């Protein structure tokens, strides 16, 4: 689960990492008191779970109250659906660093990434100037060692008092990373101010979804999702991704779902949503179809291959879903696996045409979506 910048900074402060003074507002009417608290100049930072906010004009430096009122109104009225703005003190910036911690699945270790060029996209830097990126691998069992912190600080060209302050920031950031069950924690940029302070200018924090039960302070709300269907699927525990195509995809098994997604694209079709109701969710066909029907798709394509998740049980679920929900669009089915003969009988009795070849099912769904004869 990705957190908003203001939540990442709350975590930073909890672990002793300094951030600019700030106030979170949810309407233009709250700007006055917030500006009075932070003082001018200040920065208006739209709270959205997307990269490149600065390039999209969603972060704005303002010099006085009049400019702040104008810019704040524009941000709340923007096409991006801004619901919260972090009103933040402007900082006297001398230089910027990049600092993050993530997990390297190949090495099975935590990986610290640092760079003396902060404020840029690390992915771009990795391509254009890879020699500038510093990497340090940390054994999770041993934890971050003092010599590793110094190695990174020296590599960044820091010394004296700045090195001590940076070392404290990195040590605390690692504690926050481990304590939060994070997949990624990032400060970009990490400001070095004219007064010699080190301050987190921006923040990212992504929590491992499997640790939800250990992170009760990070409650899932609608704000984290692009659509109602995506939010409801998350609460249900059903893997779901939102797109804007014509074919609602309802499959069992992540690998199969991804393969069918690719086949649809190869056939010239487009996907409205990716929904995977296999594994522990294979008896949730009614809920799965209900989520698919929230999309403005032209057809629902159901493809499953059940071994432990029996084909006949899935077929019963599909027929039950159709009976209850009465979908307003065609349903194409290709349900294979254990007890598939019974599954075929169930589908035929319900007036559906069971298919046995995945590519044939995909071609039929694409043809329906395009308004062609299938």
From TrEMBL:
Q: Ranges for the ATP-grasp domain?
A: 9-218
* Molecular function in Gene Ontology: ATP binding; metal ion binding; succinate-CoA ligase (ADP-forming) activity
Coiled-coil stretches: none
Q: Does the keyword Cell cycle apply?
A: no
Q: What is the required cofactor set for this protein? A: Mg(2+)
Return any one Pfam family short name: ATP-grasp_2
* SUPFAM superfamilies in UniProt: Glutathione synthetase ATP-binding domain-like, Succinyl-CoA synthetase domains
Is Ligase included in the keywords of this UniProt record? yes
Going by the entry's taxonomy, the superkingdom of the source organism is recorded as Bacteria
Q: Cite a single GO BP annotation.
A: succinyl-CoA metabolic process
What PROSITE patterns has UniProt attached to this entry?
ATP_GRASP, SUCCINYL_COA_LIG_3
Q: Please give an example of a GO cellular component term from this record.
A: succinate-CoA ligase complex
Keywords assigned by UniProt? ATP-binding, Ligase, Magnesium, Metal-binding, Nucleotide-binding
What Gene3D superfamilies does the record point to?
Answer: ATP-grasp fold, A domain (3.30.1490.20), ATP-grasp fold, B domain (3.30.470.20), Succinyl-CoA synthetase domains (3.40.50.261)
Q: What is its EC number?
A: 6.2.1.5
| Similarity comment | Belongs to the succinate/malate CoA ligase beta subunit family.
Provide the protein name.
Succinyl-CoA synthetase beta subunit
Q: Which organism is it from?
A: Spirochaeta isovalerica
């Amino acid at each position: 689960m990705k957190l908003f910048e203001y939540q990442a900074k709350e975590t930073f402060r909890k672990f002793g990492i300094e951030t600019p003074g700030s106030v979170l507002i949810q309407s233009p009417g709250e700007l006055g008191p917030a500006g009075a608290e932070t003082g001018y100049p200040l920065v208006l930072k739209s709270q959205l779970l997307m990269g490149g906010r600065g390039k999209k004009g969603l972060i704005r430096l303002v010099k006085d109250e009049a400019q702040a009122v104008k810019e704040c109104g524009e941000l709340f009225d923007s096409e991006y659906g801004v619901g919260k703005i972090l009103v933040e003190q402007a900082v006297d910036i001398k230089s910027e660093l990049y600092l993050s911690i993530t997990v390297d699945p190949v090495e099975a270790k935590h990986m610290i990434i640092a760079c003396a060029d902060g404020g840029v996209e690390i992915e771009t830097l990795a391509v254009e100037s890879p020699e500038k990126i510093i990497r340090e691998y940390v054994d999770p069992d041993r934890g971050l060692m003092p010599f590793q912190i110094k190695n990174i600080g020296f590599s960044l060209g820091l010394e004296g008092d700045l090195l001590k302050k940076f070392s404290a920031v990195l040590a605390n950031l690692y504690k926050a990373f481990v304590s939060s069950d994070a997949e990624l924690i990032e400060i970009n940029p990490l400001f070095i101010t004219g007064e010699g302070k080190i301050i987190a200018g921006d923040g990212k924090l992504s929590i491992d979804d499997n640790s939800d039960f250990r992170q009760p302070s990070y409650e899932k709300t609608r704000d984290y999702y692009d659509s109602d269907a995506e939010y409801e699927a998350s609460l249900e525990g059903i893997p779901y991704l939102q797109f804007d195509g014509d074919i609602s995809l309802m499959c069992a098994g992540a690998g199969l779902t991804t393969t069918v997604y690719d086949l649809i694209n190869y056939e010239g079709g487009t996907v409205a949503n990716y929904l995977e109701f296999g594994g522990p969710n294979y008896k949730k066909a009614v809920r799965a179809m209900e989520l698919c029907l929230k999309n403005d798709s032209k057809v629902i394509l159901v493809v499953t291959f059940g071994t432990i998740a029996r084909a006949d049980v899935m077929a019963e679920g599909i027929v039950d879903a159709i009976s209850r929900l009465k979908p307003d669009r065609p349903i194409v089915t290709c349900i294979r696996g254990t007890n598939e003969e019974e599954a075929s009988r169930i589908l035929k009795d319900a007036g559906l045409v069971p298919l046995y070849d995945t590519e044939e099912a995909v071609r039929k769904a694409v043809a329906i979506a395009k308004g062609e004869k299938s």
